[in-house]
Amino acid sequence: MISLSISENIAEIVLDAPKKLNSLDEQALDDLDAAYQEAEAAGVRALLLRGEGKGFCAGRDISNVVPATDDALGYLGGKVTPLMRRMAAFPAPTFAAVQGACLGVGLGLAIATDVVYVAENAKIGSPFAALGATLDSGGHALFVERLGAHRTLDLIYTADLMSGAEAVAAGLFSRAVPAEELLDFTREKVAVAAAGATLAFRESKTLVAAVRDQRIGLWESLDAENHAQGRLCDSADYTEGFAAFQQKRKPVFHGR
């Protein structure tokens, strides 16, 4: 159900249960966590997450869930949240190619990814009104920050879904592209990142997370940038980047 391939410093992780729109049970979450651990141990310089078939991930697999005995907190707090934290902390640029349904836990996987490209016809929102459940996996934080409280509750109360194009226009994700072009487009961008200055990207990833999660302001962020740049001075890629600029050639980075 979860597959990992590694080639040319790029990890590609695939949610591969298309008949159920790649919905995830607890075992699938464990397997996905293990795939990220393996990719990190391999020292890849970029990672792509995608779903096989018509949908990216329709969320939790509830086909065998019995409400009377359901441990929703254990599933979400014990499995989903640690996985999202691992994904967000991955020490290289991460990308997701999102097509079709991106709901619930699927939305959480996108939230925990650095760069998300969506198909124009992707479906994003809160489908839980018909289940008597609430939006989860970080959806409230993302929607309120980008859409505001009124639009967030509108989506929750009505269960209306946004298209990928609408979601990007609202600032939820990075770019929307035609569905038939999504995977090739994403792989091209991933390859560019994998050939880049990995240490510099990692510093920026840390800075962005601090601004988002710790709400650091301009001057604290500026000071953090200064120290990051100071650390990068000792890297081989920093030396190569300046040498390439001065010699008017394309830099060749090795991620160190």
Automatic annotation (TrEMBL):
GO terms for molecular function: catalytic activity. It comes from the Bacteria. Gene3D superfamilies: 2-enoyl-CoA Hydratase, Chain A, domain 1, Lyase 2-enoyl-coa Hydratase, Chain A, domain 2. Pfam families: ECH_1. InterPro entries: ClpP/crotonase-like_dom_sf, Enoyl-CoA_hydra/iso, Enoyl-CoA_hydra_C. Belongs to the enoyl-CoA hydratase/isomerase family. This is Enoyl-CoA hydratase/carnithine racemase.
